[in-house]
Amino acid sequence: MSFDTVIRSIFSAFFIASVIRISTPIIFPAMGGIIAIQAGVSNMALEGIMNAGAFTGVIVSAYTGNVWLAVLCGMLAGVFIASLLALFHLRFNTNITLAGLALNLFCSGATVFLLFVFTGDKGNTSNLPSLSVPTIDIPVIKDIPVLGQLLSGHPVFTYLAFLTAFLVYIFLYRTRFGTHLRAVGENPEAATSLGINVKLTRFVALILSGVLAALGGMSLSMAYLQMFQREMAAGRGWIGLAAVWLGAKRPLGVLLASILFGLADAIANQLGSLKVPSQLVQMIPYLTTVVALVVYAIQQKQEIINRIKKYQRENTETVTAESSIKK
Description:
This protein has helices spanning about 5-10, 15-40, 45-65, 65-90, 95-120, 145-150, 155-175, 175-185, 190-195, 200-225, 235-245, 250-270, 280-325, and strands at about 135, 155. It is mainly α. The mean pLDDT is about 90.
């Protein structure tokens, strides 16, 4: 494929539709990350939860033939891992970063072990008759040129991911529990003085983030593909965390950041058809993450400098006013 062909394909409706699909497994853990971080805890086990959810969904669908039961079991797998993280951090006061990393390693090893137990293969579940979630064709819109290709015909997980961004906003900023959750994240001592159970609130936040991360994993194994592969999350859990910070911990900002990372991944897929070393192409999504975080760090540093300057200016004006009064 020539370079001109690749460029033309990037500016096509098909490419934009692929960006939407590729963004899906990033949006889910990113939205889960928002909920946890707003509660003052960071779910560092998102990567492992995605792998656990992806594996569980495929295995249950293959052995039961019921796709929705498989989705439910995948979500329960996310709840289980998130509960372990909450237990270690909230009950035993373990450092949440170390606990999250440990659970990521646990999920990585456990999924490979169980993969071999169920299939006799340590690479993927291609020999299992696993199911995929249905796609949705939107009436009327599906028949409109270009627009139909962009908005219709996506797996149900894709629509659910974008709906989740809206629901997370409603949950955090339009519900009483969401207000309590943000209060816990901003000032747990003040929240406790108001009668809010800090540990329970953080527990619920971690459970919700686990459910969303598991959905992200299943969007890979039961929509993007129709099988589980070893280390299937491939860093998307970490990218989801990066999207949280890049999006300033706001649902809309995080959604746009997730789409940005999805765009980088889609471009990498297109460039893979050129005579470019595969290692360089595979670096693009992660390089984009690093650059985005550097930009975010620079912005945060500039904001701090501006606040200091504003404080100094206000302090100087106060001193000047007091001196004038004394005179």
